[in-house]
Every structure is written in structure tokens, then in C-alpha cells.
Design a protein that fits this description.
Blueprint (H helix, E strand, L loop, with lengths): L4 E9 L6 E10 L4 E6 L5 H8 L7 E6 L2 E2 L7 E4 L11 H11 L6 H11 L15 H14 L4 E5 L7 H18 L2 E5 L3 H7 L2 E6 L4 E7 L11 H18 L19 H4 L3
Parallel strand pairs: 3-8, 3-9, 6-7, 7-8
Antiparallel strand pairs: 1-2, 1-4, 4-5, 9-10
Helix pairs in contact: 2-3, 2-4, 3-4
This protein binds adenosine-5'-triphosphate.
Length: about 270
């Protein structure tokens, strides 16, 4: 069962004399929903994600998960970053077991680790050293480690941005599918419009100075999403327009606009660059 999240009037400044980086954020995320956060660089996406993870307390307001105020990290709320954060002196199996060991869930440890490796397609790499794996495989190990503890919530901070287009696409589809199947709530920070539309049931666009929620869009397309479909293309256009509007109301393009499909590529490759 996923976690229900309430972002309850959050404002934040990093020190008393600093500018506010977040202002009066309000959002309800029902249990099991996938939400993508997009917005210009520096609008506070990662700051907000850290608050959801219990790694940072807001100056005003609070986050509630399953109605309880978040004051510290929790084993069932997992955060995945751009770099997978694996321990190079442990092999794949040992890295996956770590979350279970930290949380004292050591019953059936071997079977649980094997099940997770199977889920992410790495059963044949169980004994491999993590530095011998590709970037995508390492992210899969991190994913298996996160999923092993049966999280209610997974927080993703641009987790696939360092990966090649094909690996990224596969992982986007796999993580979405796993979250849907297991009812896990997902909150994803991304600069990639297609990633937001591939993974999010809802996309929230933030503006900056200070960071606020400017727009939101429900993505009512079935999983797995097909970026080649007409419906997807229409949503991409609409989301891009909202993003531009959030940055420059007059319509001038942002310097740091999220990654848009490259129109110079043939259509098949164009959606994921
Ligand atoms: N520990 C900190 N101390 C002071 N200021 C910070 C700290 N962390 C972030 N900031 C500032 O808060 C603002 C929001 O940063 P944050 O990293 O949350 O933005 P972001 O939207 O995730 O950006 P990006 O898309 O570039 O990763 C920025 O102006 C940043 O400089």
C-alpha cells in the first residue's frame, strides 16, 4: 500500500536572512499516485523532495505522510538519486541486502534478495562486483535495494539522467510498472518532459523566486505510455507551453528549459534524447 502525502503550507528559507526558496506550497498526493515535478533550475524541486524524505525540515508548514508529520527519514520512504550510491566493496547481492539488514528484516533475506534481483533482471549478476556493471545495471541494483524493503513511497531525483536514452526509457517503463503493480507512491523530479509524461499520473510545474506550484496536469494515458502516440504528443505540447508560461509569462523560451525531443532526429529517436 502506498503512502498518502500532504504538502501542507510549506515555505522555506535556508537561513533567516536568505531569500525564500519555497512559498506556501500545498498539494495532496493520494496513496499510490505517481507525481512528476518539473520546473526551471533552482525552483526548489530537490529541496522539496528532501523535505518529503524527512532529510530537511521546512521553515513553515509541514509534510504529512499517512497523516503523520514528517520529522525524520523513514525506512519505507526511499530516495533514489542520479548516482546509485552503491558500496563498491560489496557485490550486487550484498548491496541489495543492505536495506533489509539496516531495517532488521533479515528473515528470508536470501530469498528476498533473489526475488528483487529477478524483478530488475539481474539474477545472473548477483555475485558481480558493482563497478563491473553498466550505469543502467547499477541503477537497477539501487532500485532492487529500494524495493526490497517494500517501500510505501519512492522519491526519485533525476535518477536516470546520466543514462543513455534506451536504458533510460527501459528503466522509466519498468519503475512505473513496478510502482503501479505494487501500489507504491512515486514522486519524481525531472528536467525531461517525456520522462514526466512517461512516469507521472500527474505532472506539477513549479516556478521559481520563490518556488511555487504554478500548474498541474493529469496524464490520463494507460501504462506503459507510448511517446510516439498522438495523445502523448498533444500532452507534450501542452506541458511545454505550461512550462514556458511558468518561466516567462510573455512566452520567451527559458534558458534552462527541460529536455524536449530533438526535432532534428528522425521521429523514432526524437522522443528520447
Ligand atoms: N543547503 C542549501 N543552502 C542554501 N541554499 C540552498 C541549499 N540547497 C539549495 N539551496 C538553494 O535553494 C534553491 C533551490 O535549490 P534546489 O536544488 O532545490 O533547486 P532545483 O529546482 O532542484 O534545481 P535543479 O533543477 O538545478 O537541480 C536554489 O537557489 C539553491 O541555490
Amino acid at each position: 500500500m502506498g503512502a498518502a502525502i500532504q504538502i501542507n503550507g510549506i515555505s522555506h528559507q535556508f537561513s533567516p536572512k536568505a531569500e525564500r526558496v519555497l512559498e506556501e506550497l500545498m498539494l495532496d498526493i493520494p496513496a499510490g499516485q505517481s507525481v512528476a515535478l518539473i520546473g526551471e533550475s533552482g525552483c526548489g524541486k530537490s529541496t522539496l523532495l528532501h523535505m518529503l524524505a524527512g532529510l530537511l525540515l521546512p521553515s513553515e508548514g509541514c509534510v504529512r505522510i499517512n497523516t503523520r508529520q514528517v520529522t525524520r527519514p523513514h525506512a519505507e520512504w526511499n530516495m533514489m538519486f542520479q548516482r546509485p550510491g552503491l558500496y563498491p566493496w560489496l557485490n550486487v547481492r550484498q548491496n541489495v541486502a543492505l536495506g533489509l539488514q539496516f531495517t532488521g528484516q533479515t528473515a528470508n533475506l536470501k530469498a528476498r534478495v533473489a526475488e528483487m534481483l529477478e524483478l530488475v533482471g539481474l539474477s545472473d549478476k548477483a555475485s558481480a562486483a558493482v563497478q563491473d556493471l553498466s550505469g543502467g545495471q547499477q541503477q537497477r541494483v539501487a532500485l532492487a535495494r529500494s524495493l526490497a524493503v517494500e517501500p510505501e513511497l519512492i522519491l526519485l531525483d533525476e535518477p536516470f539522467s546520466a543514462l543513455d536514452a534506451f536504458t533510460r526509457r527501459n528503466l522509466q517503463l519498468e519503475v512505473s510498472q513496478i510502482a503501479q503493480d505494487k501500489g507504491i507512491t512515486l514522486v519524481l523530479v525531472t528536467h525531461d518532459i517525456d520522462e514526466a509524461l512517461t512516469m507521472g499520473e500527474r505532472v506539477v510545474v513549479m516556478g521559481r523566486n520563490p518556488g511555487t506550484f504554478r500548474h498541474e496536469m493529469n496524464v490520463e494515458l494507460p501504462f506503459p505510455r507510448n511517446p510516439m502516440s498522438r495523445e502523448f504528443a498533444a500532452l507534450r505540447e501542452s506541458l511545454m507551453a505550461r512550462f514556458r508560461e511558468s518561466v516567462h509569462p510573455a512566452g520567451t523560451p527559458a534558458e534552462d528549459a527541460p529536455r524536449e525531443p530533438d526535432q532534428t532526429l528522425p521521429p523514432k529517436e526524437a522522443a528520447h534524447v
